[in-house]
Amino acid sequence: MHAALSIKDGNDLLTITYEDMVKYHGRQFIGGVALAYKLLELAFRVLTPGEPPVRDRISVILAVYGPGIIDGIEMATRALTRGALTIKPQLAAAQPAPDAADGQGGRYYFEIAYGDDKLMINLKSGLLPDEFIRLAYKTHDGTISEAEQLRLQELKEAIAQFLLRQKAEDLFDYRREGLLGSS
């Protein structure tokens, strides 16, 4: 069991675990679910230190089309449902973020805003195995074999466990901008 995220929804304080996100999404893109969890863990800690964020004040821009990432963020923030989640792969063109192998030119770059305060976040390079990227591309061009699909799922599970064992600050490079200035 991992620590839980806390988020305010109206008068309610919700506690959302990684396991809750997995129940919502499933296991097909489990690495993305783990990545979403760690992204939100970092964003909540930096943007609203010492208190849970208010769900309706959160907006998200992703530079990757990642179903696990989208579902994880949606489950916690309802950003997609609220129209506060945008996917813009072109946003990451000039960012030092790793290739996301999403078949749409995406990179592991994210912007999470809380009101007028924003974090620009990218996954650190070298954390994802080259084999994962290679096999992920094969899913998009239709050349992946059944054995490779099984191996890809094993890699996704291993990546998820790796991500969850790390401190969020060790996974991402980020900078903050907004009313409180840059840091």
3D structure, described in words:
The chain is an alpha+beta fold. The chain has a single domain (5-177), classed as 2-Layer Sandwich (60s Ribosomal Protein L30, Chain: A). Helix content is 40%, strand content 20%. The strands form two sheets. Strands 4-3-5-6-7 form a five-stranded mixed sheet. This is Formylmethanofuran dehydrogenase subunit E.
Layout of helices and strands:
Elements: E1 5-9, E2 12-16, H1 18-25, H2 30-47, E3 58-62, H3 67-77, E4 85-87, E5 109-114, E6 117-123, H4 130-141, H5 146-165, H6 168-171, E7 172-177
Parallel strand pairs: 3-4
Antiparallel strand pairs: 1-2, 3-5, 5-6, 6-7
Helix pairs in contact: 1-2, 1-3, 2-3, 2-5, 4-5
- Radius of gyration of CA atoms, rounded to a whole number: 16 Å
Mind telling me the CATH class? Alpha Beta
> How many domains make up the coordinates?
1
Pick out the low-confidence regions: none
Order of helices and strands: EEHHEHEEEHHHE
Strand % is 15-25%
Which key phrases capture this entry?
20% strand; 7 strands; five-stranded mixed β-sheet; 183 residues; alpha+beta; 60s Ribosomal Protein L30, Chain: A; two-stranded antiparallel ribbon
